[in-house]
Design goal:
The chain is 90% helix and 0% strand. By secondary structure, it is mostly helical. The longest helix is centred in the middle third of the chain and has 43 residues. Keywords: ATP synthesis, CF(0), Hydrogen ion transport, Ion transport, Membrane, Mitochondrion, Transmembrane, Transmembrane helix, Transport.
Length: 48
C-alpha cells in the first residue's frame, strides 16, 4: 500500500531520533563520567 510509505519513514525517523537521544543521555550520565574519573585518577596518581 503506497499510501503507508510516508508513515513508515516517519516512524523510522522518530525511532532513530529517540534512540539517538537515549544514547546521548546514557553516555553523558553514566559512561563518560566514569572515563573522566578514571583519567583524573591516573593523572593524580602519576603526579604523586
Amino acid at each position: 500500500m503506497p499510501q503507508l510509505v510516508p508513515f513508515f519513514f516517519v516512524n523510522q525517523v522518530v525511532f532513530a531520533f529517540a534512540i539517538f537521544v537515549m544514547l546521548i543521555y546514557v553516555f553523558s550520565k553514566y559512561i563518560l563520567p566514569r572515563f573522566v574519573r578514571l583519567f583524573a585518577t591516573r593523572l593524580f596518581i602519576s603526579k604523586l
